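Structure first, sequence second, as always.
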């Protein structure tokens, strides 16, 4: 228990996707989570982002996160292909510049919550460790 008398149940893993070209959450992006153990890459979870750009449930529930290396794969090409082009915008590339954005990261302290968002346009992306 911590000093406030509340039991610490451990961390989890969540994500969200923001379309920074359109300035809104990215709905309908397929997200896959893999665990990396040596040369083994194991599928752990799969979800699709909702209207808020988030998955409906965390990819790893609180208390189930383990220390180690993970990969998040965001399937962004189908999302951008489905977006209507606004007047004056550059047309979407065919084939698209970005197809699947894969982020590999390490969980050092599984007692903490890890939030790994993707900020993406058809031509670039960035990420950070959120809370």
């Amino acid at each position: 228990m911590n000093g406030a008398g509340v039991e610490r149940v451990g961390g989890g893993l969540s994500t969200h996707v923001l379309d920074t070209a359109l300035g809104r959450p990215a709905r309908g992006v397929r997200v896959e989570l893999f665990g990396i153990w040596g040369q083994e890459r194991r599928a752990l979870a799969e979800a699709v982002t909702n209207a808020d750009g988030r998955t409906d449930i965390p990819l790893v529930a609180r208390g189930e996160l383990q220390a180690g290396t993970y990969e998040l794969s965001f399937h962004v090409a189908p999302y951008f292909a489905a977006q209507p082009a606004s007047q004056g915008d550059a047309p979407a590339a065919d084939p698209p510049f970005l197809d699947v954005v894969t982020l590999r990261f390490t969980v050092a302290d599984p007692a903490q919550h890890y939030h790994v968002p993707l900020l993406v346009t058809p031509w670039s992306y960035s990420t950070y460790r959120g809370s």
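Margin note: The domain at 13-127 is CATH 2.60.40.180 (Immunoglobulin-like).
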